[in-house]
Design brief:
The protein is mostly beta strands. Helix content is 9%, strand content 31%. The protein has helices at 141-148, 181-184, 342-355, 390-394, 413-421, and strands spanning 28-30, 38-39, 44-45, 68-70, 81-82, 152-158, 162-170, 176-180, 192-196, 202-211, 216-221, 243-248, 256-270, 276-277, 280-281, 285-291, 303-305, 311-320, 337-341, 359-362, 365-367, 380-385, 401-405, 408-409, 428-434, 442-447, 449-452.
């Protein structure tokens, strides 16, 4: 077994995580019926994809986080069901924002011959010669949007069972696109993918490689050249409060730009993605960047960029209120969005392009998702240790409670999984553990091993 905290005794999403009571984070890409991964803790996380009806989930103990990829959904036998998330009755209702409009509006008082001040009218002024595009200040949201929009695409996925939309970012001028696995896999193995570019053109796409563990995939469009690759930044030195911009296709609205900040870092987010690992369903655990930039179904796979337009994350899930708090099930953005850090996305994408599959780091233990009632210290309780695995060689015993990885506090099984998977195979980390009463703390150095995402434990 590895650091994966999946409890094989429970079929559902993990019952422990960074977000305690709540639903799983669903992917941000969902069927047209309003679905996108949602993260789960008290609120429910959904995928941010614009496909109605397909909501992967991201879940802490009780809720699920939905990915924000396409909103995919199962369709009736007669016709495919759209998977755009967030659309009620298939339409977005726009209300006019006006109040007190009546006889008071439109009453233009004119004066002149009676000696009072002459009337001036804004409509009589000449149209100014202003170029908003040229005048975009460096570092402004406007400048960032102008730079990044050509590198963000909408991905339409359709099959006999489901259809929806998600987002993606351009990696190469000849058509390599990075997106979420739950977006690329949302329509099933026989689904067809179409990529729509910022200039309105489109092209068919095929899968290059997918990784259910990290919820990332790379697809390739055909017949396109001269595309604008996105500029990759780094997620290693992000700071809470740093301004960010999210770009994608929420609810099928291509090229949507929203702004916010980095709300938190290193959030262990469990999403209900698409795919399997060693024949079993996979619930990706993401070491996520949290943001309050508005993210909705259809944003899944889209870009989270910094103030200079460099990619720092792939938008993947949102937290939404659970079914007990809402009448329609899935809701839109409530300011809790989650993105896969670009440093992890870069490594996985490179492996998918070169080999069609990705590897992930593992420590060689199985941890409980739910805290043992007898456990008096917060941490990840070790259930099993893989013989001759990294943890076993370092002397970590079954029954220990892992409380830190390097300088990072560990308060749950999912937190340990996310922390380990933020590293690469071969990295050396320090693990601090105690007994379940918090006594006898020890710190050991562990060299993480690697495993294929579709392999065993």
């Amino acid at each position: 077994m590895t650091e994966d905290s999946k409890d094989r005794r429970e079929p559902g999403p993990p019952d422990a995580g960074a977000f305690e009571p709540g639903e799983a984070h669903a992917p941000g890409y969902g069927p047209r019926e309003a679905q996108h991964p949602t993260a789960q803790f008290p609120p429910q996380h959904h995928p941010a994809a614009p496909f109605p009806g397909y909501p992967p989930s991201f879940a802490p103990p009780n809720d699920a986080t939905q990915p924000h990829g396409p909103a995919f959904g199962a369709a009736p036998a007669s016709a495919p069901r759209p998977f755009r998330a967030g659309l009620a009755a298939g339409a977005v209702v726009l209300a006019l924002v006006s109040g007190g409009v009546g006889g008071a509006v439109g009453a233009l008082v004119t004066h002149g011959d009676d000696g009072r001040a002459p009337v001036t009218n804004a409509l009589d002024a000449p149209k100014p010669n202003v170029s908003n595009a040229v005048n975009a200040p460096a570092g402004s949201t406007q400048a960032v949007a102008q730079k990044v929009l050509p590198s963000v695409v909408m991905i339409k996925v359709a099959s006999s069972k489901a259809e929806g939309e998600g987002s993606g970012v351009v990696l190469s001028s000849d058509g390599l696109i990075l997106t979420n696995n739950h977006v690329a896999a949302g329509g099933g193995p026989s689904a067809k993918m179409e990529v729509v570019f910022s200039d309105g053109s489109s092209a068919p796409a095929t899968l290059v490689g997918a990784d259910p563990v990290s919820d990332l995939a790379v697809i390739k469009v055909s017949g396109k050249s001269g595309l604008t690759p996105i500029e990759l930044g780094t997620s290693a030195n992000l700071q809470v409060g740093q301004p960010v911009v999210a770009i994608g296709s929420p609810l099928g609205l291509a090229g949507t730009v929203t702004t916010g900040i980095v709300s938190a870092l290193n959030r262990p987010v469990v999403t209900s993605g698409e795919g399997s690992e060693a024949g079993a369903a996979v619930s990706p655990v993401i070491d996520a960047i949290q943001t309050d930039a508005a993210i909705n179904p259809g944003n899944s796979g889209g870009a989270l960029v910094d103030g200079s337009g460099k990619l720092i994350g792939i938008n993947t899930a949102i937290a939404t209120l659970g079914p007990t708090e809402t009448t329609g099930g899935q809701t839109g953005s409530i300011g809790l969005g989650f993105a896969i850090p670009v440093d992890q996305a870069r490594r996985v994408a490179d492996e998918l392009i070169k080999t069609g599959k990705a590897t992930y780091a593992q420590v060689g233990i199985t941890v409980s998702r739910q805290q043992d009632p007898a456990q008096q210290v917060s941490g990840a309780k070790v259930r099993d240790v893989t013989p001759d695995g990294p943890a076993a060689r370092a002397g970590v015993p079954p029954g220990a409670v892992v409380t830190k990885l390097d300088d990072r506090p560990i308060d749950s099984g999912n937190a340990l999984v996310a922390a380990v998977r933020s590293h690469q195979p071969g990295d050396k980390v320090k693990i601090t553990y105690t007994d379940d009463q918090g006594n006898n703390p020890k710190t050991v150095e562990v060299t993480l091993s690697g495993a294929p995402a579709d392999g065993g434990r």
